[in-house]
Amino acid sequence: MIIPTVPTTDELLDKGFRRARKAASLKRSSKIPGQKKAKVIESTRVQTACQVIRDRLKMIIQRIPDIESLPEFYQDYIDVTVGVDELKKSLGALNWAVGILNQLESDYMTRIKRSKPSDASRLRREAFGRISSVIKRIEGDLDFLDFAKNKLRNMPTVDLDAFTVVIAGFPNVGKSTLLRTLTGAEPEVADYPFTTKGIQIGHLERKWKRIQVIDTPGLLDRPVEDMNNIELQAMVALENIADVIMFIFDASETCGYTLESQYSLYLGIRSVFDIPIVTVFNKMDLAENVKYLEEYINSVEDPLKVSAFEGRGVSKIIKKLEGLYEKETRETHDNV
Asked: Is the whole-model pTM more than 0.85?
């Protein structure tokens, strides 16, 4: 979702009042009877300032799509990242300001028209003061929308109709490396926890099959209410778009988490999501001296043992995903 550039209150007022001065200058050079000229000039300033500021606010409101009309994945993503309620509140505040500016324009245009020429300038200054007060009241909302603009700038574009595999697991178990090996995507990879700062997307294309593969941020083995925003983004992906979850174990434990902790997270995910789970034991090249490894490998159904960094065993993953894709396609066709 792209939010347009959001001005500060000072920028908004400066633009409105500057345009008002220019519009008034044109009226000064026009042929208007002396008794009416002052009132025409000042009413023009009020009208122009209200219109310019109001139009800018309306443009921001209109360019932000209706949140509730978006697919659930994007609604949840926005909620996790900036907060849907806060976004709606700020848009509502801008809409309120538009309505007040409409009233001020109508009110002061009438008052200036009915005033003495000598009172026109005073009424215009009064109107500008009230306009400034209205805009200052939405300063926090403009600041929030600017914050939201920056946070949502890189919101992922997900093909919601594609067969989708979501990669899950603890931080630093090799999820980004596996995505790169499977799809050729180039996510940023680094050797520290929570290296993946957002959802990374790649596509696997083989034999006319197009499988969307999504790398989620690292998940920690703790309740959802204790998760941070990065972890919650991963849960959003799992809940809304996954046809298959690919759970990655670090067989070497070099990620900093024991196999016992990783298995606990695996069981938690399996209990929450009623979709196929492909279980992959990664970093097998580094796991020679890990005790109890076979115990955990034997505790899951149809485990795949790979080294994503070396590319070993990746073909088995691709074959497994192709089989699940074909099964999904058959079931979808049978249900039509």
From this structure: no
From residue 72, give the alpha-carbon distance in Å to each of 173, 241, 245: 29, 9, 19
Dist. CA 68–CA 271, nearest whole Å: 29
Is the pLDDT assigned to residue 222 strictly greater than 80?
Answer: no
Instruction: List the beta strands (DSSP E) in 76-181.
Output: 163-168
Give the burial class of 248: count Cβ atoms within 10 A of its Cβ; 0-12 exposed, 13-18 middle, 19 or more buried. Answer: buried
pLDDT in tens, 82-93: 999 999 999 999
Residue 19 pLDDT exceeds 70: yes
**Sign of the four-CA dihedral 236, 237, 240, 245:** negative
Contact assessment for residue 39 and residue 24, using Cβ atoms and an 8 Å cutoff: no
* Edge-first strand listing for the sheet containing 163-168: 200-206, 209-215, 163-168, 244-250, 277-282, 304-305
Give the span between the Cα atoms of 296 and 267, in whole angstroms: 12
Q: Which pLDDT value is given to residue 227?
A: 77
For residues 275 and 268, is the Cβ–Cβ distance under 8 A?
no
- Do the Cβ atoms of 206 and 254 come closer than 8 Å? no
- In tens, the pLDDT along 225-280 reads 777 777 777 778 778 899 999 999 999 999 999 999 999 999 988 888 889 999 99
Instruction: Extract the tokens encoding 307.
Output: 């080294």
Query: Treating both helix axes as pointing N-terminal to C-terminal, what angle do 72-81 and 139-152 enclose, rounded to 10 degrees?
Result: 120
For the record, the structure tokens of 212 come out as 């969307």
- Is 172 in contact with 249 (CB distance < 8 Å)? no
250 three-state secondary structure? strand
Longest CA–CA span in the chain (Å) reads 97
> In whole angstroms, what is the distance from residue 80 CA to residue 91 CA?
18
Note the pLDDT tens digit of each residue in 137-158.
999 999 999 999 998 888 888 8
The residue assigned the tokens 């215009």 is 124
Burial of 120 per CB tally in 10 Å (0-12, 13-18, 19+)? buried
